[in-house]
Design brief:
This protein has one helix and five strands. The protein is of the alpha+beta class. A five-stranded antiparallel sheet has the order 3-1-2-4-5, with helices on one face. The chain is globular and about 45 Å long.
């Protein structure tokens, strides 16, 4: 499935398409891999909906302005214990 994650109060063509199993995973992938979208996991910060109008391949996030981001992180970093 493909999802579109868009910062609240912006146009959908400035969002980010990502292939994910569900909306939560889509938000997490965008938050971990797109600069400036660190808060995308929050519904207050960004909306997320199924959208197949753009189909980035596995491991890629495509931005509406033509940017491409490689998914290098799939999980938040665990805090280092001392």
């Amino acid at each position: 499935m493909h999802f579109l994650v868009v910062r609240v109060n912006t146009r959908s063509d400035t969002g980010f398409w990502v292939q994910a199993g569900d909306a939560h995973e889509a938000r997490l992938l965008v938050s971990l891999n797109v600069p400036g979208m660190e808060n995308a996991v929050s519904q207050i910060f960004a909306s997320c909906e199924r959208d197949d109008s753009c189909s980035p391949g596995y491991g890629t996030i495509t931005g509406g302005a033509g940017q491409s981001y490689t998914i290098t992180r799939r999980r938040p970093k665990k805090p280092h214990r001392t």
